[in-house]
Every structure is written in structure tokens, then in C-alpha cells.
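Agenda item 2: 6-O-phosphono-beta-D-fructofuranose complex prediction
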Amino acid sequence: MAEIKSVGVLTSGGDAPGMNAAIRAVTRSAIFAGLRVYGIRRGYQGLIEDCISEFETQSVSNIIARGGTILKTARSMEFQTPEGRAKAFENLQKHGIDSLVVIGGDGSITGATIFSQEYNIPIVGLPGTIDNDLAGTDHTIGYDTALNTIMWCVDRIRDTASSHSRLFFIEVMGRESGFLALNGAIATGAEAAIIPEISVEVDQLKELIGSGFRKSKNSSIVLVAESPITGGAMGLAERARKEYPELDVRVTILGHLQRGGSPTAQDRILASRMGAAAIDALLEGQRNVMIGDDDEKIVYVPFSKAIHDDKPIDRNLLDLLRRLSI
Ligand code: F6P
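Presented output:
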């Protein structure tokens, strides 16, 4: 196995708070270990278009507290083609970059898997997504900050919901997973979370109304995970208005608010630990693994596991929510 002398770092897919802390940790740990580091802007698309520059320790000064990603990001269609990946490889060679750290969600890790197989490049992934939907890691970078942002917003909606005795459906992100909705509901004392993982098993709206929440509550907040399976907040509100016309229903979609903001301490620390671990992994000869955290310990998760295995929600949390929202 050839010795690694340089590393490129990029962020890809949806940005997530804490990505900057991860870029900083990758850069500084690599330089500390004697490697050259290259920042690649705009994700895989930037790799294709040669948006690459060498980083020094100062390139990542004062970014740990900033949301978004200083490297910018993109969802590159061109990288999904063999021609696009060939251009990307040429640019790596041109700069003498012999390994990569890719920070992103499942689309980014999927891209890394294909690229590394085609060109035999050592790549290590960092889970950067607010969705927390990658298997093999308890937490992804950005999830805690997004959860806190949701909490901040829902607390404020509760004030107006209870003043008017209204039922609010609040839609949160998560792609096809309910981590943000379920834990957001527990953190805010919401009455229910409607999540794709159990939508096929039970009619959650019927269950909510059937539980008699109107008798004891003067307002109700339901967190809804965005997904065609749940029907989203709009779909559920429409149904509730039709089936329960006596209810005063409102909808809030939190949207991209959830992706911004200064990362929490937890995300900064997680990103710093994972960024340093990515360089350790490359130097140890690891390839095609994503850095994960398992009970506070750093673990190496094969790419195939991270993107293909199910990451089930904790059913105990659903029970907890039901018990506490009576
Ligand atoms: O994967 C992160 C995420 O924020 C998802 O929760 C959401 O479905 C999606 O990205 C939104 O993507 P975009 O910013 O491209 O609209």
C-alpha cells in the first residue's frame, strides 16, 4: 500500500452545522501528521472543475463557530457519470492528492464508494447531515444543532398555539427518517410525532385524535417528518380539517432554518473528534470507511453498511413520547 502524503477534503450534499469544525480538524490533524492538505470547493462538482487550493493551518482559523461550510457544497449530477469522475481523478493527479476525506450524507458516501472503487483512491467519510440517517454511528455532525433549532422554534410556536387553543402540525426535515421529529417532540413536550418509520403500521393521526388529547389539552403540537409516507404537515392538516372540522388547525414548515446556525458544543466536539479520526484512519491504511461514534467511541464503519443498513428509531422513545404526552 502506497504511503499517504497528501489529502483533499470536501463537503458534499446538504450542508450541516459542524462541517466547518470537521474541515478544521481534518486540516490541522493532517498538517500535524506532516501531510499536505487541499481544500476542494463545491463538493464533487468542484473536484471536476478543479476548484482546489492548498490549505495551511491558518486557512481554517476562526471557523469552528460558523454554520454552513466554508468549502461550499453541491449535489453534483456530473459526478454520477463515468466522464465526470474521470475529470475528477485527473484533477486529483494534477495536484498530487493521494487520498480524500468526504464530509456529507448518504449521497456523498455513495459517490465516494464508486469513486474509490473505480480509481483505487483511499477515501474516508465523515457523517455530515442533520438527518442522522447513516447507520453505524449514533450521531451525525449537524444533527444536535438542528434538534436544538427545532426546539427553539417549537417552544415559540407553543406560546401562540396555547393562546389560541390550536392544533399545530410542524414539519421538520429528515429526508426519509424520523429522528429529528421524534426527538424534537420529546424535547418540546409535543403531543405526538408522525414519522415515516411507523406510518405504514398505524394511522398516527387517528391514534392521536383517538387518544383524547382534546379533553386534557388546550393546545396540541404534532411534529411531522417530511416524507411522502407521512403526507407531510400540509397533507395531515388537510386531512384533520376534513375529518375533525371542530379543530382549529395551523401548519408551520421549518424548512432550511434547520440547516443553519452556529453549531452546538456537542456538534463541534463530535466534528473535531471525527475529523482527527479520519486522518488517523487514512494513516492506519483504512479505506472506504466512514467514521462513526458508538457509545462515545470512534468506530470505522464500512461505506456499504453506512448507506445500506437500516438505522432504526428507538421504539422506547416512541413509548416515552406516548406516556409523557397524556
Ligand atoms: O439531507 C439533508 C436535508 O436537509 C434533508 O433533511 C432534506 O430533505 C434535504 O436535505 C433538502 O435538500 P435541499 O437543500 O437540496 O432542498
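Discussion summary: Residues 14, 105, 129-131, 173-175, 226, 259 surround 6-O-phosphono-beta-D-fructofuranose (CB under 6 Å).
Owner for follow-up: CH.
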